[in-house]
Design a protein that fits this description.
The protein has 218 residues and is an alpha/beta fold. 46% of the residues lie in helices and 15% in strands. It has a single domain, classed as TIM Barrel (Alpha-Beta Barrel), CATH 3.20.20. It is built from eleven helices and nine strands. Strand 6, helix 6 and strand 7 form a beta-alpha-beta unit.
Length: 218
């Protein structure tokens, strides 16, 4: 599920915009603003009722955007996300009932982990791309390096989210354990509600510029 080509694209682009959207009318201009800034991967979180409608609008009107759904907490949500043709699914934790539901139809999925035990449970599902959440409060890169070390030879990589921002994203992206970072600062809930697409584009450009500069050095 996390060995899907979609996660290869995530690792190549290195930046995922993580979003809370309250009005699905904002979905298309939001996606277009992110694309204008070079961000073509987004995670719409199921923290509001607008997320699924926003996904459908983006899939129809902005097909070049790789749009997934996050905050998947139940098997029913995992099924609905697959049926809505999301590019991928993400959860804040590791719920094996959710993983079983996602695996059956083949929904690319990255569960949340924060301990070695979480990583080992994910490995039982042959998952190699895992969300590290909450990254900052859990100890950031020093903690990630410690828990990742026993599994590096298996090719496990992580998507940090929570405490990752424009100031420290370079440190995260330079770390070999990190496949890509999740950026909620790129398009905050408040900025989306205000329809401030210019700021979102500028934030997206800053994030992609940082990612591109680090790729050039690697």
């Amino acid at each position: 599920m996390s060995n899907s080509p979609v996660f290869e694209k995530v690792a190549a682009k290195r930046v995922v915009a993580v979003l809370v959207i309250d009005d699905e009318e904002h979905a298309v201009p939001l996606a277009e603003a992110l694309l204008d800034g070079g961000v073509d991967i987004m995670e719409l979180t199921l923290r509001t009722n607008a997320a699924m409608g926003a996904l459908r609008r983006i899939r129809t009107s902005v097909p070049e955007m790789i749009a997934g759904i996050g905050t998947i907490l139940t098997p029913d949500q995992a099924k609905a996300v697959h049926d809505a043709d999301a590019s991928f699914g993400v959860s804040p934790g590791l719920n094996e009932r959710v993983l079983e539901t996602a695996r059956n139809p083949g929904l690319p999925f990255a569960p949340g982990i924060v301990t070695p035990s979480d990583i080992e449970r994910a490995l039982e599902y042959d998952l190699r791309v895992l969300k590290f959440f909450p990254a900052g409060p859990s100890g950031g890169l020093s903690y990630l390096n410690a828990i990742a070390a026993p599994y590096q030879h298996l090719g496990v990589r992580y998507l940090p989210l929570g405490g990752v921002n424009q100031e420290n994203m370079g440190d995260y992206l330079a770390n070999p354990n990190v496949a890509a970072i999740g950026g909620s600062w790129i398009a905050t809930r408040k900025t989306i509600e205000a329809g401030d697409w210019a700021t979102i584009t500028a934030n997206a450009k800053a994030a992609t510029t940082c990612a591109s500069a680090l790729r050039a050095l690697s």
